[in-house]
Design a protein that fits this description.
Number of domains: 2
Low-confidence stretches: 1-9
Number of strands: 29
Shape: globular
Radius of gyration: 20 Å
Number of helices: 6
Strand order of the largest sheet: 1-10-11-12-13
Distance between the termini: 31 Å
Length: 364
């Protein structure tokens, strides 16, 4: 994106920003006119900086089986970040398997993204600016107070402008899927140090394909897909692709080739929307999806759905939405995850308008 001239008429830092931040606002890659107040001030939505974790058995007492959680695996360590908690905080600064990570969720865009917490060997921690761009969370790092776009991981203002955080494979899955796959995993505790209505959805009714994005002022959403349609995206360098959930519901196993790499996008029912009913565990079933490399042990697998299951053509092994073979010749094998992110279409399209929307005839 072209760097903006900081002296351009009216293109001055957002109101109040220079009082709240020590950011070098002379450096920025986007127009400040695109950045709006989301209501709360800096850190008005507080990040979780000292997360506590509990085991699966304890979390079972307050998590419903269909509730959505963000699954992050680093090495052999798996953690679940329930949306019932991080919807109220949007950022968790954490260490997983010894590595600094930042786990983020923007409820206005239905976008959960995990990033490496280091840049050039320097550890960064993040907070909320209280601002939005195209309805998407704008974060800041506490070390340089640069501003970052959550959806893309790009620094858009400050010392680190034009740098990008490295995204990690993370996905929104049901609590049932997490606990079944990772009985020894850890779960973000409700003991956060804050008094919030965990389990309740502060955006009740927002998840409606016919509604309009909240506080959205940005480019017109391209194509025929509704702005609030759910998609899972693969941000490939040459060819970003969006896979609509409405297509995945009809075709739960998609074989595609992106930037020359064969990938599979898998979907299964059983995950509640965090943005539908007042109580998150009562949200309608929107399912969950994940993207994976189709290459395993020197061969390329081809997937298809049959009944309620997903199978590969080569061995007829059965797979789940976490990319693991649960029955058959390849039982226990795991596909390599591809970085893929859930969004509402309007949000992703605002940042990557060149994205190809997958259609069934595109199978490769």
């Amino acid at each position: 994106m072209e760097r903006q001239d900081s002296a351009a008429p009216r293109d001055v830092p957002p109101s109040g920003a220079e009082r709240e931040f020590e950011t070098d606002f002379t450096k920025h890659s986007v127009s400040y006119e695109e950045i709006l107040s989301g209501g709360p001030p800096r850190d008005g939505i507080p990040a979780i900086d000292e997360p506590r974790f509990v085991g699966v058995e304890e979390a079972e007492e307050w998590l419903g089986s269909r509730e959505p959680v963000v699954l992050l695996r680093v090495g052999d360590e798996a953690r679940a970040y329930p949306l019932q908690i991080i919807t109220w905080h949007e950022i968790v600064n954490d260490r997983v398997n010894g590595a600094p990570v930042v786990v983020t969720f923007c409820p206005l865009c239905n976008t959960a993204v995990a990033f490496e917490g280091t840049l050039d060997g320097r550890e960064l921690t993040f907070g909320t600016t209280g601002r939005l761009r195209f309805s998407n969370l704008v974060m800041y790092d506490r070390q340089t107070e640069s501003w970052w776009q959550q959806a893309t991981g790009d620094a858009i203002a400050g010392e680190l402008t034009d740098r990008q955080l490295k995204a990690l494979p993370a996905s929104i899955v049901s609590w049932e899927d997490f606990r079944s796959a990772h009985p020894g995993g850890e779960v973000l505790s409700r003991e956060t140090g804050y008094n919030r209505s965990y389990g309740q959805n502060p955006y009740a009714g927002y998840d409606d394909v016919d509604s309009s994005p909240f506080l959205y002022e940005g480019p017109k959403t391209p194509g025929d897909l509704p702005p609030m349609a759910r998609v899972i995206t693969v941000d490939a360098e040459e060819e970003p692709v969006a896979y609509p959930y409405e297509v995945l519901r009809e075709t739960p196993a998609i074989n595609d080739v992106v930037d020359g790499e064969p990938i599979a996008v898998l979907w299964q029912e059983g995950t509640a929307s965090a943005l539908d009913e007042q109580s998150i565990d009562a949200g309608r079933d929107v399912g969950s999806a994940g993207a994976f490399s189709r290459e395993l042990d020197g061969r390329t697998l081809t997937f298809h759905s049959e009944g309620d299951g997903i199978f590969d053509k080569e061995t007829d092994s059965e797979w789940n939405v976490l990319g693991r073979a649960v029955a058959g010749e390849l039982e226990g094998s795991r596909l390599e995850p591809v970085v893929s992110i859930d969004h509402f279409w309007f949000s992703w399209a605002a940042f990557r308008p060149e994205t190809r929307i997958y259609e069934p005839q595109d199978a490769r």
